[in-house]
Design a protein that fits this description.
Layout: E1 17-21, E2 24-28, H1 36-43, E3 62-65, E4 68-71, E5 84-86, H2 88-91, H3 98-105, H4 115-128, H5 134-138, H6 149-162
Parallel strand pairs: 1-5
Antiparallel strand pairs: 1-2, 3-4, 3-5
Helix pairs in contact: 3-4, 3-6
Length: 172
């Protein structure tokens, strides 16, 4: 059992991980091997990031780290010094992000377990590629156990249309 797991009699607090979470500077005084998932949920009470599998297989725990989707169950605090992390709670203050709006408009929600992770993965995908290919969409690591994939694809298309264009750098 790793020292960060519940029930462990000893925890090493050898260092602190400093990062920005949802725009706020955070210092986690936790075992450096603690997965980001548990730091967010247990130490910061950001429970929108879901625990689904603990094996990097489902994507329920997806957050955005330095602009890229990351499975928070598989990233240790020691690897996040100085990182910028965005959780579902920080994506938009009132649910107005284009992906959140598209998710609602396409009535994707079923059980809700995959919802935050999918929304974060899609937001990162659209930031990197405003018009993602079918291969990029199929490459999302997230799993919906309810099978809402047709609606998820419609939500991605709707969000891509609604997202503001990415500014182009001047050539020259």
């Amino acid at each position: 059992m790793a020292s960060w797991q519940r029930g462990s009699a000893q925890a090493s607090v050898a260092s602190m991980a400093r990062m920005t979470v949802n725009g706020e500077g955070i210092e986690y005084k936790l075992d450096p091997d603690t997965p980001l998932l548990w730091a967010l949920r247990d130490a910061s009470n950001l429970t929108g990031t879901k625990y689904g599998c603990d094996s990097r297989d489902c994507g329920a725990c997806t957050v955005i780290v330095d602009g890229r989707a990351a499975l928070s169950c598989g990233v240790a605090l020691r690897d996040l010094e100085g990182a910028t992390v965005t959780t579902i709670e920080g994506l938009s203050a009132n649910g107005t992000h284009p992906v959140q709006q598209a998710w609602l408009a396409e009535q994707v929600t079923m059980c809700g377990m995959c919802e935050p992770g999918f929304i974060m993965a899609i937001a990162a995908l659209l930031e990197a590629s405003p018009s993602p290919s079918e291969e990029q969409i199929a490459g999302l690591p997230n799993i919906c156990r309810c099978g809402a994939y047709p609606r998820i694809r419609k939500a991605i298309a709707r969000a891509a249309q609604a997202a503001p264009p990415v500014p182009q750098q001047p050539q020259g």
